[in-house]
Design a protein that fits this description.
This protein is an alpha+beta fold. The chain has helices spanning 28-31, 92-106, 111-114, 211-218, 224-241, 250-253, 271-281, 283-296, 338-351, 385-399, 412-418, and strands at 59-68, 71-77, 81-85, 134-143, 149-158, 162-170, 173-179, 187-195, 199-206, 243-245, 257-258, 303-307, 317-323, 331-332, 372-376, 404-409, 425-428.
Length: 431
């Protein structure tokens, strides 16, 4: 079977499909180690592995693309501010797509929602096996109070989209392993650490959902082993759910929008409504945004405000404007350039948080214990050097406080500026 095809032969052992893909398809059978149900939950001498140094909040510290698009055996460290740079076709967007798909699965999305273009994620030159199956592999590491936890996925994209293998591990100990045992059923066989006299629990899980996200509904937490599984699974889910993919669309941001909840959408089409809210509820952040607008928008900027049509009530369309100072007419955002609109939207994203952005963080944790990660592909598209530099400044300002992180793909000009800034990690990719 090709290294890029996640399913093994008939009745594979749980976790067997999850070994990191070798660099060449011909190495698949000899290079891929196998895991069996007996390896699930193998305890250390004292019954539980001692975690290393812990991060105070759950954050994704590494994305792995074992076999995904143009990437094979690729590992990408994720810092508070991480920029992916490289020529067209080097795979910058694919890294962010993988990150976003993992986040969607962690938030409860079905596989079809997380990978609407699954076939495009099959590694280049992947050859189908005898059953005409092809797929891809990806994963991440989440650090936090429970210590570093690894999540690895093997996804079959052809002929049917399904998760055929998943592994949750910590310190070399497998906490959850799943594998496709019967291709005729829409389920995978799962085994997770129980501890005590039982050792391991086995049960089927759906093949189109992330098993890790389902564990809190299936594990009681009555043994030390179960509590370890729960802590690891919940840490991964919290980190994955706290992700905001952002791609401002200037053409959608120009028209007035109905006054609503004031939570920014991923395309930022409701920017005017969010500015209405921040002006009245987030005075400090609104002031910071106004200061940023003075750098990123042409002409004099005295403030950011909103306008309502005369004689209208609640829910009326809202128009955002740049105030130009005493005696000067305000400029509606509809008259701004595409780069100015993208700049304002991205600046707003970096200066706000889950309460303003349309994300669904873990409700069971206080916001002070969560970190929001903004994913932005081609973040500097349409921006000039000054606007890009100001966004980097805002990113360092906001991310330095520990409650927000940025992972973005950038062009070479922005990357060149970022390489000279302490605190920015630039990941250079080659075509």
């Amino acid at each position: 079977m090709d290294a890029t095809s996640p399913a093994t032969t008939t009745r594979p052992a749980p976790g067997a499909a999850l070994a990191d893909a070798p660099s060449h398809p011909t190495e698949a059978r000899s290079a891929a180690p196998r895991s069996t149900p007996a390896a699930v939950g193998r305890p250390g001498p004292d019954g539980a592995a001692e975690p290393p140094q812990r991060h105070p909040r759950a954050v994704i510290t590494e994305v792995r693309l074992s076999a995904f698009g143009a990437h094979r055996a690729a590992v990408f460290p994720i810092a508070p501010v991480t920029l992916f740079a490289g020529p067209s076709g080097s795979g910058k967007s694919q890294v962010l797509a993988a990150y976003g798909a993992l986040a969607a699965l962690g938030s409860g999305a079905a596989l079809e929602e997380a990978f609407p273009d699954a076939r495009a994620r099959i590694p280049d030159r992947a050859v189908p096996d005898a059953q005409r199956r092809r797929g891809f592999r990806l994963g991440c590491t989440v650090d936090g109070p429970a210590g570093p936890v690894r999540l690895d996925l093997a996804v079959q994209a052809e002929p049917t989209l399904r998760i055929v293998g998943e592994r949750l591990s910590q310190g070399g100990q497998i906490l959850l392993a799943t594998a496709l045992r019967d291709p005729g059923r829409r389920s995978v066989q799962a085994a997770w650490l129980t501890g005590g006299s039982v050792g391991v629990t086995r049960a089927p899980l759906p093949d189109n959902r992330l098993g890790t996200a389902l564990l809190p509904l299936r594990v009681a937490g009555s043994t030390a082993g179960q509590r370890q599984v729960l802590a690891a699974a919940e840490q991964v889910v919290v980190a994955l759910r706290s992700v905001f993919p952002c791609d401002p669309r200037p053409e959608a941001m120009r028209a007035p929008v109905p006054a609503g909840a004031g939570r920014l959408l991923p395309d930022c089409a409701n920017l005017a409504d969010v500015l209405r809210r921040t002006r009245h509820e987030c005075g400090t952040r609104h002031t910071l945004l106004t200061e940023a607008a003075r750098t990123g928008c042409a002409g004099t900027v005295a403030g950011l405000d909103v306008r309502f049509p005369a004689g209208t009530g609640p829910g009326a369309p809202v128009t955002a404007v740049l105030e130009r100072g005493p005696g000067r007419p305000a400029t509606e955002l509809a008259r701004l350039g595409a780069g100015e609109l993208r700049f304002l939207a991205l600046a707003l994203v970096l200066l706000t948080g889950p309460g303003v952005l349309a994300v669904d963080p873990a409700a069971e944790l206080p916001s002070a214990r969560q970190v929001l990660t903004v994913l932005a592909d081609d973040v500097d598209r349409g921006l000039d050097r000054g606007q890009s530099a100001e966004l980097l400044r805002l990113a360092l300002l906001s991310c330095g406080r520990g409650h927000i992180r940025l992972a973005a793909a950038v062009g070479e000009a922005t990357a060149d500026t970022a390489r000279r800034l302490p605190g920015v990690a630039v990941v250079d990719l080659t075509a």
